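Re: the multi-chain job from yesterday

Posting the exact lines I submitted so nobody has to dig through the queue logs.
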Amino acid sequence: DIQMTQSPFSLSASVGDRVIITCRASQSISSYLNWYQQKPGKAPKLLIYAASSLQSGVPSRFSGSGSGTLFTLTISSLQPEDFATYYCQQTYSTLPLTFGGGTKVEIK
Amino acid sequence: QVQLQESGPGLVKPSQTLSLTCTVSGGSISSGSYYWSWIRQPAGKGLEWIGRIYTSGSTNYNPSLKSRVTISVDTSKNQFSLKLSSVTAADTAVYYCARAGTYYGDAEYFQHWGQGTLVTVSS
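And the result, structure tokens for all chains:
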């Protein structure tokens, strides 16, 4: 299985802060990487696919970058509705599909 | 806009079979080129992909669960289903159904999710 490791496990930030979340793959996955946002009691929501493509309807303050084994999700100016847990997911050719452990973004 | 809704028992006894159904509305489950997946999440933990069924009916399962999992589709009811046998307390989780679109030919991204249903394994 391809292991996905996210860091940090959690972070505290203020509204307006720039937030960067990292996801590392145990082997190269090219750009086969997606990002999701999950709020308590809700299903995950797709934010970014193919490492850097913004899903329709997602605010432009979210951006993704990276390829190979290292990826980042950036929130350029944190908004109150962005406090949530974020997951990366690899979709490289080798099954199973796997997710990172999640990064919880909390209010400072 | 496609919508998915999970249904099934919220409580299953150990060693029994967990059975869930995902009803799809807003589109036909047999049209287009989509993967229909099951994903679960134990309380306070991360997401685990269980398996998927393609529009053609072909299936793939997580090797960690493969011996216990069956995913099937009923196109007449616009539903797909999950069966997980010989459950234990470790299978207690919120179970989601999801539809995946593709990019780069076969890379999947989960665009549409059900709201999730909690299944507890307990006697």
